[in-house]
Amino acid sequence: MIWQQCVGLVLLILSLSAQSRTPPETTTWTGVVTYVVDGDTVHVRPVDGGKVHKIRIIGMDAPEICQTGGVAARQALQERVFQRSVTVSAQGVDDYGRDLATIYLSQEDVGQWMVQRGHAWSYRFKRDPGPYVQEEENAKLLGRGLFAEMPAEYPRDFRRRYGRCPYRR
Predict the structure, then answer these.
(1) Which of 20, 29, 43, 62 would be a feasible disulfide site paired with 73, CB 3.0-4.6 Å?
(2) pTM of the shown model
């Protein structure tokens, strides 16, 4: 009896472990950007109605709003997408309840656009340099945006040193 319970428990743990490795389901929908929080977070209202989604653009990391380059990053993103129709390719939710998504303006990847212009870094995780590493290298070589004055400080390092900015909507 105890042996059967142990086998059942092991099978349950293996099942849950396999589920946690399954990539999140991607959902794609169209909406209008109603607010730009900072250089990597926007609010989007679906065109077919429903609640506004707070979206963290994945693949890139913009400076904190109170960090050097933060206001410029938000302004660049706002000029590009505010009150415009975008396609959202959502791939999960982060620890703050924001949808994690790639956003497209027409066929253009907005995260890639931000990195190309030096307003953000390719998002690094452990040894993975992120999806826009080549765009970041080009922006550095051309001295665009954040990379006009080196060295620019990664947002993660900035938060470790100073904490989060006091205001985030």
Answers:
(1) 62
(2) 0.81
Annotated catalytic residue, options 64, 80, 117, 136: 64
Structure tokens at 60: 């890139």
Distance from C-alpha of 67 to C-alpha of 40, rounded to nearest angstrom: 13
pLDDT of residue 23: 52
**Any catalytic annotation for residue 56?**
yes
Q: Would you say residue 110 has pLDDT above 60? A: yes
How far is it, in rounded angstroms, from Cα 142 to Cα 138? 6
Average pLDDT (140-162) is 88
Domains of the chain: 25-162 (2.40.50.90)
Q: Which of 56, 74, 80, 117 is catalytic?
A: 56
The alpha carbon dihedral of 117, 55, 130, 29 has a sign of negative
Instruction: Render the burial of 86-102: b for 16+ CB within 10 Å, e for the rest.
Output: bbbbbbeeeeeebbbbb
Which residue out of 74, 98, 135, 136 is catalytically annotated? 98
Instruction: Please say if 136 is a catalytic residue.
Output: no
Distance (Å, whole) CA 13 – CA 83: 46
